[in-house]
Amino acid sequence: MEEKKLTEQTAAARLAALQIVLPRASEPAAKYANCVRVNNLLFVSGKGPAGGFRGKLGRDYTTDGGYQFARLTGIEILAVLESALGTLDNVKRVVKLQGFVHATPEFDEHHKVLNGCSDLMLDVFGDKGIHARSVFGAISVRDGLPLIIDSIFEIEV
Questions:
Q1: Who's near 142: CB < 8 A, 6+ residues apart?
Q2: Which of 71, 114, 144, 145 is the most buried (most CB within 10 A)?
Q3: CATH number of 2-22+33-155
Q4: Orientation angle between helical segments 110-125 and 63-85, nearest 10 degrees
Q5: What is the chain's percent helix, strand, coil content, to nearest 5?
Q6: Are 56 and 100 in contact (CB under 8 A)?
Q7: Domain locations in the chain as residue ranges
Q8: What would the pLDDT profile of 26-68 be if each residue is shown by its tens digit?
Q9: Strands 41-47 and 132-138
């Protein structure tokens, strides 16, 4: 019964239950689009956490802090989706997340950091949130952000 309720809930209802209010979609940091649609796929450009955070995992932030940054980044991604689609209910499935974690050479918990975004996608989309994923350590990312995540979604056409 509990599983059926989750499946029937709208993404907006799940966000409300999580007490998440989506911000306005952030603008691209350079000359590119926030997202590009190709047939039934929506490619979302790399996003980082809002709030002016700068620094490296393993030096300035812990794995748990990185998890929270990845969750905040997921919220940024959801805002772009809602802006592009009008409603998150037009997402058929999360296809892939790819993370770039700004980290020291010794840091080796990149996968645990990206779980912050993965867990959010599962919370918001249920089974449609199950996705493929890759994560990389980066010695440098734009604006010194702690991480950047790009993503691909299958959408209703």
A1: 29, 48, 148
A2: 114
A3: 3.30.1330.40
A4: 40
A5: 40, 25, 35
A6: no
A7: 2-22+33-155
A8: 888 899 999 999 999 999 999 999 999 999 999 999 999 999 9
A9: unpaired
